Amino acid sequence: MRCCLCISATRSPWLSAYTPTSVGASGCASPGCRCHGRKPSYPSDLTDTEWTVLEVEARAVMAELVAPTGRPMVHGLRAMLDAINYVTRYGIEWRALPVDFPSHEAVYAFFLRWSRRGLPERLAGRLRGHLRVMAGRGELPTAGCIDSQTVKAAETVGATACGFDAGKKLKGQKRHIAVDTLGLLLCVIVTAASVQDRDGAYPLLARLREKFSTIALVWADGSYAGRLLAWARYVLHLTVTVVKRSDDLRGFVVLPRRWVAERTFAWLARYRRLVRIYERKPEHHEFMIWWATVYQMTRRLTRNLAGQPPHSRWGDPPPLPELSSPDRRGKVLELLAVQPWRAWRGAELAVILGIENVNSFRVQLSQWSHEGYINKIGPALYGPMPTST
């Protein structure tokens, strides 16, 4: 006799978007599946507020893209989206989905079928429009930025889809993206890593012009210089402005406009499935990027609607204590004892204590250090005052 989990793992997925006609006690017509009564259990799951924002847009887009034929969809839409987000966020295999999600066959079939229909891309377009309006911009962008990123490919990617990037010394694939001035994704194309940036920009800009007729200006780095600029101007009626790095600059310098696309790459790198390419086909990796973008925009839009500031990645520092010591040296030791992990500097301590003459205060700190009250001065940890024997 087979258990319910075995039956669930071998069932055929129903792929359309119609409302189920008959369901069991668990809310799902598929035996052994409890996706309709599933509760959010993982950090990647959509909260109730986020689901309220995303459900309206998802249902509207699916109604536009639904196929006229096919079986009704029996699995819950929220469980399906949470499962795809779980794979994208944590980089696991499809077969490694937890048991509280629908079967991995059904989730992968949903991912593939609706991604080919353009569900994540259209969802990102709707969410992008809301975010731009809330930021005081027009719903459609008029300027953008393009850039590329080489990513190492896993052994699951075929040799025909990979290439070697001689500049980055990596074998894999290259992501070409176009973003607006807020860093929101507009277009993405995945090619072999051996494709030059300017060669990958031709189909990227063509797709950008096809989808956004309002864009007139695009910023790029020095690797896009050459015939691409004239082609974009006379064929696509796009002005591509190259922001070059000066030879006189040394070290890290934030260049105008180019950092927007770099920040978008950093956002995408938070999803472990995008850190390395595992998909056998380049278009499947493009689907992964669009799904990650949908979840990012959903959370950002939810925070904006609630009037909440963005979450700090490292958390806010703890508040400073009330200094009760009567002398200056005792106050310094109180600060060092409360936050021993912090690399205090003399100028920071002077501001907290209200000392105007910073140079004389630094001399005093150095004197306390020689006397043994403070172990080390500068950007390092401080120890407590030694006890007399």
Structural account:
The N and C termini lie far apart (78 Å). With 389 residues, the protein is of the alpha/beta class. It is built from twelve helices and six strands. β2 and β3 (170-180) form a beta hairpin. Strands 1, 2, 3, 4, 5 and 6 form a six-stranded mixed beta sheet that branches. The longest helix has 25 residues, at 282-306.
Sum this structure up briefly.
This protein is an alpha/beta fold and 389 residues long. Helices cover 41% and strands 10% of the residues.
Structural class: alpha/beta
The termini sit apart by 78 Å
Strand content: 5-15%
- The number of helical elements comes to 12
- What is the makeup of the main sheet? 6 strands, mixed
Spell the H/E element sequence.
HHHHHEEEEHEHEHHHHH
Sum up the overall morphology in one term. globular
Percent of residues in helices comes to 40-55%
Indicate the low-confidence ranges by residue numbers: 1-25, 376-389
Radius of gyration: 27 Å
Annotation, overall tally of beta strands: 6
Mean pLDDT: 83
What attributes does this structure have?
alpha/beta; 12 helices; disordered N terminus; 389 residues; single chain
Blueprint of the fold:
Layout lengths: L3 H6 L38 H18 L11 H14 L13 H14 L1 H16 L8 E10 L10 E3 L4 E11 L4 E8 L4 H15 L5 E4 L6 H8 L4 E4 L15 H11 L13 H25 L21 H11 L7 H8 L4 H14 L18
Parallel strand pairs: 1-5, 5-6
Antiparallel strand pairs: 1-3, 2-3, 3-4
Helix pairs in contact: 2-5, 2-9, 3-9, 5-9
